Amino acid sequence: MSLELVTVKNFRNLADLSFSPVDGVNIIYGENGSGKTSLLEAIYYLSHGKSFRTIKYKTIIQHHQDTFVIHAKKRIDQLLLPVGISKNQAGDTELKIQGKVSRKIAELAELIPVQLITPESYALFFGGPKERRKFLDFGLFHVEHHFFSLWLSFNKLLKQRNALLKQKPHNYHEQIKYWDKEFVRLSLEINTLRKTYLERFRSVFFDKIAANLTLIVNLEIKYNSGWKDEAELSELLIQSFTRDVKQGFTSFGPHKADLTFSVNDSLVENYFSRGQLKLLIYALKVTQNYIIEAETQKQSILLIDDLSSELSIDTRKDVGQLLAQCNSQIFITAIESESISAVLEPMKRKLEMFHVKHGKLITS
Ligand SMILES: Nc1ncnc2c1ncn2[C@@H]1O[C@H](COP(=O)(O)OP(=O)(O)OP(=O)(O)O)[C@@H](O)[C@H]1O
Description:
Pfam family, one: SMC_N
Mean pLDDT: 94
Strand order of the largest sheet: 2-1-4-5-6-7
Protein name: DNA replication and repair protein RecF
Number of strands: 15
Number of domains: 2
CATH topology of the largest domain: Rossmann fold
Family: Belongs to the RecF family.
Strand content: 15-25%
Low-confidence stretches: none
Order of helices and strands: EEEHEEEEHEHHHHEHHEEHEHEHEE
CATH class of the largest domain: Alpha Beta
Bound molecules: adenosine-5'-triphosphate
Number of helices: 11
CATH superfamily of the largest domain: P-loop containing nucleotide triphosphate hydrolases
Largest sheet: 6 strands, antiparallel
Helix content: 40-55%
Subcellular location: Cytoplasm
InterPro entries: DNA-binding_RecF, DNA-binding_RecF_CS, P-loop_NTPase, RecF/RecN/SMC_N, RecF_2
Radius of gyration: 22 Å
């Protein structure tokens, strides 16, 4: 179920790199600027159709080249499924799954669940609610088939509602009332799926993945929708109507929900040290992958950029214990491979080291 062969062409400083990762832990090490993060970025791009570093695709295409290509073979039972994505300077994207052109990145995303941990992952706590909704919905996207189409329908409706608001209607008229019935119905469905998923998430997180972490004593994970039921959301839409018209957007609904992580009534970002926050990020992402793997039989991928930064040896061991609990194919970057030996100790997985230098793999 893992990625077995990855080829990256004209992607940042990776002119033409091919490697065969193992179904276990893949360490990508090398000097600053050698191309380690670019390699993770390429794997991420293959699943998400976008970079985690920039929205400007032209900065990704190698200088003086027209098109980048990322290609991989994904094992599904006995089958080796070729998947690929390319993008050129004109902005044309081509996705291919088993030789057939696909128009939907969601198809690739569904096939290859890729999660990422970087030094910027603190955004889960310090960033806005959007980051936390994205985290929750990533899990739902993979385990709840119905969720994606529901989310697309909701977003279409939200756009229509906002367009209506921008026409500055004078009162809460029939047409809006009509749209709002559907808006409330979809909101309710999304909320129910999120809450059910979060219940499952909490039980896996507290009872299994993070059960031995002293860090999580008194940790609370809460979903705040901003309303409790159909009647309350309907009422809030009416009450906030004048304000919504002024703003030109809808202020209540699942697009405004948030997750909070707190300890003793303090948000973790105001309470935990950076090392503790990082450990919590690992625990949350491993939980997510564990659930995806348990419920879909798909193997997920965990990309970890610069693992050793800000983590003491003991915390690295804790990270190793956490990582040992999921079956994900793992890619870890480090400047020196020795810096992560404490992480690797508790993991009884196949291990392979890849040394990157000036955008190329060095066989040592
Ligand atoms: N479009 C591009 N074309 C060619 N080279 C690029 C392009 N974009 C970035 N680079 C170069 O790619 C190199 C690899 O960067 P990358 O971030 O992958 O390095 P890294 O090994 O992760 O380094 P660090 O350990 O410092 O994080 C950098 O030297 C960067 O200048």
